Amino acid sequence: EVHLVESGGGLVQPGGSLRLSCAASGFTFSSFPMHWVRQAPGKGLESVSAISAYGGNTYYIDSVKGRFTISRDNSKNTLYLQMGSLRVEDMAVYYCMREAPNGSGDYWGQGTLVTVSS
Amino acid sequence: DVVVTQSPRSLPVTLGQSASISCRSSQPLVFSDGNTYFNWFQQRPGQSPRRLIYEVSKRDSGAPDRFSGSGSDTDFTLQISRVEAEDVGVYYCMQGTHWPWTFGQGTKVEIK
User: Fold this and answer.
1) What is the least distance, in Å, from the CA of A103 to any CA of chain B?
2) Given its phi and psi angles, is residue B96 left (phi above 0), alpha (psi -120 to 50 degrees) or beta?
3) Least CA distance to B45: which residue of chain A?
4) What average pLDDT does the segment A21-45 reach?
5) Chain A nearest C-alpha distance from B62 (Å)
6) Which of A47, A84, A105, B21 sits a CA distance of 20 to 30 A from A37?
């Protein structure tokens, strides 16, 4: 059974940094591109970043370019999101999502909450 | 970025009746391989999103057959027939053809 478990969220001051992790199990992690999707409190879903199966290609939305870095360690079956220069508007639940081979996300984690506040 | 406009934002329905949610994309969603990567997700209160429909009309194995998707090009619809209490939640459409993948604003389905 596929499992995605995020961790690393917490309270951080504006301008601070945080690293999120997503531990994957139940499938061949190195075969699938992975995504981070966020949801601000009471709001909708927003794609944040994506990474190809072997990590050679990465994608970001404009608002996080230069501040966030997505990476993966296929030997540890783990996806990461290094977040820097955090802003109040980055506050959200961050989900990791497996990309299915059909332009979709077929499995999601339970999410980890990032709170940006002074 | 592709803008996906979803309507209605709120949808009160009577148990056993049908419901329909629409999404319109600002760009055609046919990918270079000929497929259209349009999806529907359900998010129950306090839960992570769960995929119901992919590639416009293909239903996930765990999704009840009362959920169906249709559409093409820029216009798509999710139909829920015979709404049940467990269908309460927020439904999102999402395009996976162009990066960044973009979601509709969500439709909150509630029971009258």
Assistant:
1) 4
2) alpha
3) A42
4) 97
5) 11
6) B21
